[in-house]
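Cross-posted from the bioinformatics board.
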Amino acid sequence: KQEVTQIPAALSVPEGENLVLNCSFTDSAIYNLQWFRQDPGKGLTSLLLIQSSQREQTSGRLNASLDKSSGRSTLYIAASQPGDSATYLCAGRGGSEKLVFGKGTKLTVNP
Amino acid sequence: NAGVMQNPRHLVRRRGQEARLRCSPMKGHSHVYWYRQLPEEGLKFMVYLQKENIIDESGMPKERFSAEFPKEGPSILRIQQVVRGDSAAYFCASSPGGEPQHFGDGTRLSIL
């Protein structure tokens, strides 16, 4: 059974700082891993999706990596901005189409 | 191109009543997924449907909960005889099959 853990649960940084969010999963037979952003009272916005055959994906200031052997993924945010403040969720997909989510990291970027 | 539409955004029910949550997938999407987010918890998968078929309901409580995705109209998640523990945010996602799943803004269900 796949379990996904995210550390830390909350993170507060000053504007401009580079930061890393961590995600670990128990079942290395992962089909893909996805990072989402959730704003308060809103749904989920997909940020990056990494297939099991890939090592990383980049979009603007965001870079996500996937290491299946160690069961880890990281989301790197460069030059953080107050608008990046949100909860970041990672989700792994196994053989079925259901996503298994971590509890998220709540990020606060202070001006 | 409208995204995944969920309604109502907020729903208040008294214990013992029924709650009906609706989800209209993105245009061209025939796969619908329901997830539940309890307070301070991550999203948990409930059910995966295609038109007129339940594909995977392994995350659905065995009693009081049901879901459908008819040939015409939105997908419906139905909760009968609601209890306080049903209070949560319910999210619907859709896809054309596989990735990515696109999420709606959710329905916040509160039980009095």
